[in-house]
Write a structure and sequence with these properties.
By secondary structure, the chain is an alpha/beta fold. Helices cover about 20% and strands about 35% of the residues.
Length: about 375
């Protein structure tokens, strides 16, 4: 079929504080890391030999996925970092530079390779994408989606002719100067010869550096216009929106875990819920060992991670509560992401545990 590459070395600054202590591909959706959904999807299409470039908090990715055997995949890791004053510190080489480092080390990219960013949910027909790439004799392909004109400032835009041959790029253009509405989805297909164009040992980016080089050299480089679901988690507001869509059942191949005990209400194992006085309006998921005290209202879509404790009189509306979070009595939380260390609104305004001026009372349910 093809080999695979997952880009997972980024710092994820635009989704902080979620990525303060975890790499972006490990951010959970329905209790599973985003990258796990990607791995499952690639495996469905027979992509089983996959390298992952890592940097920030790399151990959390490596310890979770290991060698990939639990997913029927062979996973390898390429750490991007250096020794600085006696400490090993992350130093990402960029999306293309990371690939060149892997190639120089062991020559992994010896056949057609599917490259995917590790921070998005997709249901791309990988077989069809590879087939189109090969039928056109492409050296490189980028999978695109047409986005509304108002959204083009959020994306790298691809300009292509009627046959799909890439002519130029615009990086996050304003709508009035945009030459296209085709957004790059961060899904690429490369032949091994592409790697020879990447300078070794220096940071180099696929979108802003490698792609313009391919166009400049007039090489067979194509944009694919393919209908599929692509949910990019580029910003904190995106993560909240994705969670809401998934809980509403709008994303295929993402089923609610647990047992449905009432319409739209799912629970994990060994929950302790004061059912006689609790108000739950689905879709709501309560993870294993969750405790819900009397008088609590939870208005969905809402996710309460395992081991959490919601105390009496609290109202939670359209929130994501990470595992082992305790929320104090009579709190009013609306459209927020809450963890034992912080709570942040969909607008990005964050509060951290211990702040004297925080309007919320919450903490670690294990304490």
């Amino acid at each position: 079929m093809a080999k695979g590459m997952i880009l997972a070395a980024g710092q994820g600054t635009r989704v902080r504080p979620l990525t303060k202590s975890m790499p972006k591909p490990m951010v959970p959706i329905l209790g599973k890391p985003v990258m796990e959904y990607l791995i499952e999807h690639m495996t469905r299409y027979g992509v089983r030999d996959v390298m992952v470039n890592v940097a920030f908090n790399h151990r959390k990715i490596e310890n979770y996925f290991g060698d990939g055997r639990c997913w029927g995949m062979n996973l390898g890791y390429s750490y991007e970092g250096a020794r600085d004053h006696g400490e090993i510190v992350p130093k990402p080489l960029g999306s293309a530079g990371g690939m060149r480092r892997i190639q120089d080390f062991g020559g992994f990219f010896d056949e057609t390779t599917l490259v995917i960013c590790g921070d998005a949910l997709i249901d791309l027909d990988i077989a069809a994408a590879l087939r189109e790439h090969r039928e056109k004799g492409a050296l490189a392909s980028v999978v695109t989606l047409e986005v509304p004109l108002a959204d083009v400032p959020n994306y790298g835009v691809v300009v292509a002719d009627d046959d799909g041959r890439v002519l130029s790029f615009q990086e996050k253009p304003q709508p009035e100067v945009a030459k296209s509405r085709l957004a790059s989805t961060g899904i690429y297909i490369f032949e091994p010869a592409v790697l020879e164009l990447i300078p070794p040992g220096v940071p180099f980016d696929i979108g802003s550096e490698l792609f313009p080089l391919l166009v400049e050299k007039g090489l067979p480089f194509y944009a694919q216009r393919r209908p599929f679901n692509w949910i990019d988690i580029g910003r904190l507001s995106d993560y909240w929106e994705v969670s809401q869509r998934v809980l509403r059942g709008e994303v295929e191949q993402m089923e609610m875990p647990g047992e449905e005990v009432a319409p739209g209400v799912w629970v994990g194992l060994n929950t302790s819920v004061a059912w006689e006085s609790v108000k739950l309006v689905g879709p709501v998921y309560l993870g294993a060992n969750v405790r819900i005290d009397p008088g609590v209202s939870i208005i969905g879509p809402a996710w309460i991670g395992h081991g959490s404790h919601i105390r009496s009189g609290t109202r939670i509306e359209r929130c994501v509560v990470f595992e082992y979070t305790r929320i104090g009595e009579t709190q009013q939380l609306r459209e927020m992401i809450v963890s034992p260390q912080y709570c942040v609104g969909r607008d990005g305004v964050a509060h951290y545990l211990g702040e004297d001026d925080s309007p919320y009372r919450w903490g670690d349910a294990r304490g």
